[in-house]
Amino acid sequence: MPPLETGILGLVAILVLIALRVPVGLALSVVSFLGIWQITSLNTAAGAIAVLPYDFIAHWTLSAVPMFLLMGAVVYHSGLTTSLFRAARLWLAGLPGGLAVASNFTCAGFAAASGSSLATASAMAKIATPEMLRYRYDPGLATGVVAAGGTLGSLIPPSVLFVLYGIFAEESVSALLIAGILPGVLTAAVYTVMIVTRCWASPRLAPPIHEKVGWYERFAALRSVWPLPLLIACVIGGIYSGLTTVTEAGAFGAMMAFVIAMAMGKCSLGSMHAAVREAVLTTANIFFIAAGAILLTRFLMLTGLPGALSDFVSTHAQSQLAVLAFATVIYLVLGTFLDPVGIMLLTLPLLLPLFKTFGMDGIWMGVLVVKFLEIGLLTPPVGLNVYAVRCVVDVPLETIFKGVGWFLLCEVVIVACLVTWPEISLFLPSLASIR
User: Fold this and answer.
1) In a domain? residue 191
2) Cα dist. 125→71, 107, 227, 270, 392 in Å?
3) Banded pLDDT at 263 (limits 50, 70, 90)
4) Which domain holds residue 109?
5) What distance in Å separates the CA atoms of residue 432 and residue 434, rounded to the nearest whole number?
6) Does residue 114 belong to any structural domain of this protein?
7) How far is Cα 163 from Cα 156, in angstroms, rounded to an integer?
8) Is the pTM here over 0.85, yes or no?
């Protein structure tokens, strides 16, 4: 069989295996190994599987992944996010849909400390959604805002997806992390405008809360949220100023999370054991997928499929916008049934050559790729963030998807802004001169 046809058959086989619930990492590794064997020889395939995964996973920058995951796990299991939501509720409850707005900004704050969309959605579903339902908020709004707000974990630094993208695309991970700040703020702002507008036009979605809260109580609530801003400032400030590398910032952030949890008296042996275990398991899962993805990259290089795809798209697409449309369709389709890490590592070997052929800025495209992956966390039939919320609260799945639909409309506006004005993504990295 010609190498090109072998490559196409291999991709089809991977998708079939994943649809059959074979783990993504295993599907990528097995098909890539067999494909390399078919094109070259058994010795070459055995050599690839013995050397390539180790060479990739031993990459120094990847050390940031377990550190960021550990930092987020400590923040979650020590309960540091509860006070953040309480403060946001006291300050924002007077707005139309104030509790939903508070949930949105609390998601942004937790995302900046965890770097995980699923962790953010799960934590906020436990903390914020019951509170909104208690005040008779529309169930679709109460769950939709948490599921959508959770996606900020992929965009606001620290972000595991940005670390993986940077290593695969050979782009500055520091620049990518900084590039996600303004798009993350833009996303949270657009969500807020939509929530306030809807709840102002239809008060039944979020009945006003008639609760007198004094300024003393509001400022007192702020005193209990100092850990998260401090943690975020340490991580982002270290990277932005150039004082720390991404890996050093991750290690420092994990250490700071432990120190803060101890200072707040929330560092029990049980919670820290759960945090470390969660970080180890998640890291192992991500690295297993990454090992399969690096094998897939070598397999596809041998087939010539990336070059053929680039030539095909170059022939039929005459602009960067057309390439973006092509990439958008791929990510939205795969996002309906795959997890974000699997999607990104499956598609980058095919799409990166396209981006380079059309001279598309790697940092800009990194932000857009992560944004597309965020949207995939919300789209049916899978929508992992939606399922994460459903596992925590007793709200029908169709109600949550209906509530998320309004946030997907917001995403159309946000993506249009990011495509029209790449400076939104590129301004801070250029200002910090870390590209």
Assistant:
1) yes
2) 20, 10, 21, 22, 6
3) confident
4) 61-285+304-432
5) 6
6) yes
7) 12
8) no
